[in-house]
Every structure is written in C-alpha cells, then in structure tokens.
Amino acid sequence: MKHLKKNLRVLREMLYLRFHGIAVFRMDFFGPFFVDGSLFVIQLLAFGVIYSNIDTIGGWHQGEMILYIGTFSLLNAVNMTLYFFGVNGIPDKVRSGELDLYLTKPVSPLFRLSFENISPGSVPLMIMSICIIAYGAAMSKVQVTALRVLEYLFWLLLMGILYYDMEVIIRSVSLYVVSMARMEQLENAGINLCMKLPGIAFYGVYKFIFYLLLPYGIMATLPVQSMIGDMDYKLAMYGILVVVLFSAGACLMWKKGLKRYNSASS
C-alpha cells in the first residue's frame, strides 16, 4: 500500500509537468489527435468498402464488426494516451545511456518510463470510439444490461493490460540486442492485420500465432464476444491466462534485461 501511494504521488507530479508542457507546446495535443483521427476515419472507410461486397467476416455481421472497430480503436486510444509514448522511448534511452538516470531514482524505472509522456491528444479519439461502440451495439441489436457492460469493461481492462505487456516485452528486447527494427516491424504488422480482422476469422496456424504467440487477435475480439454474449467459461479462462502469462513475461524480461544492461558510465 505504501509503495502504491508513492507511485500515485509520482504519477500526479508527472501529470502536472506533462500538462504544463503541453500548454506551452500545443502541437503535442493536436498532433496525435490529427494522426489518430485520420487513421480511424480511414479504417471506417475501408470496412465500408469491404461490407459493400460481403455480408459477414468470420460469422460477424456489420454491426459486430463496427463494435470491433470501435473496441480496437478505444484500446489504441487509451494506449496512445497513457503509455505508448513513454514505453516507445525505452530503446532510445537504452542506446543513449539515458536509462541510467531512471535507475538512480527512488521509483520504479519502468513505471516512470511508462507514464512520463502521457498525451491527452488521443482523448477525443476515445470519445469517437465510444460513439462507434454504441452505434455498433445498436446495429447488432445487443441487449445491453448493466452486467454485460461490466463484463465488457472488465475485458477492456484486461486487454489494455495485455496491450501494455506486449509493448513492454518488445521494447525490452533492446536490453538484449542492438537493433530493434525487426521487432517493431513484427509488432506493426500484427497490429495492422488484427485491426482489420477479428480473431474469429483466424484458423489453424494463424489462430495459434495471433491467439498465443502474438495475441493481438484477442485484444478486441474478447471484449466484443463478451458484449454480444458469445463467450463461454473456457474462452474466458483462456483470455485471463494469456494476460497473466504475458504480464509475468513482461516483468521477467524487463528485470532480466536490466541485469544485462551496461551503464553508459561503465
């Protein structure tokens, strides 16, 4: 509890400093909003073209797919707002030796790295995503109840943690190797594919890859399945297990990597 309170105080101070900086450099707000908003609109237009030629994808009709688009977009917006810009900077700090400064501070270096560059520029995209989710739920005629909304929010939280775990694992590779280019290309390819296709569309080896090795395929799929009432207890247990395993893997990889890290002053 004491450790949690200390981290919360540090987070509060980082938020203050970050918002103070954004007030001076306003492009830090409008830049991410313009980029994310453009990608969001392009994705909607792409799905409009797809559904002008087909009726279903993996058994999901247009309403479920709109719900899926909104869910993935919401996860991405939360990611871009809270921790993407912080975690994404880890490889550069490792190469430059700037990570030394974080290791000497009386707070978890990963915690500070993750949340020091919070960007509210994606907050409007969160609002747009929520509107799309509501429209998709109405279009797919989902019976919205308090319990179903709570289940959906629970899976959003878990998948947000999984999203963070994947980013930490991939950036932690910089503590072991010199070049991160291939890992970042792999990440971008996985995310771009799974933003277009829900997990239910994958079969065979592709399902093994995107449900287990690179579980981007479940990030928006499981919340949607919980919302439309298409989730059984086996799938729920599997989703929870994946999050637990990748969270443990992220912690282990980060801690082991720090032991291998050669300080710039050494």
Key descriptive features of the protein:
mainly alpha, 266 residues, globular
Would you give an account of this structure?
It is a single chain. The chain has 266 residues and is an all-alpha fold. Helix content is 73%, strand content 0%. It is built from 13 helices and no strands. The protein has helices at residues 2-24, 27-50, 62-82, 84-87, 90-96, 99-103, 109-115, 123-139, 146-172, 181-196, 205-213, 221-227, 233-260. Helix 2 (27-50) packs antiparallel against helix 3 (62-82) and helix 3 (62-82) packs across helix 9 (146-172). The longest helix has 28 residues, at 233-260. The radius of gyration is 19 Å and the shape is globular.
Percentage of residues in strands: under 5%
Distance between the termini: 35 Å
What's the Cα radius of gyration?
19 Å
- How does the overall form come out from the CA principal axes? globular
Mean pLDDT: 83
How many strands, which pairing sense, and closed or not: the largest β-sheet? none
Taken in chain order, the helices and strands follow as HHHHHHHHHHHHH
Helix/strand/pairing category: mainly alpha
> Which parts are unreliable, with pLDDT below 50 for 5 consecutive residues or more?
none
| Tally of individual helices | 13
Total DSSP E strands: 0
User: Helical percent range?
Assistant: over 70%
The quaternary structure here is single chain
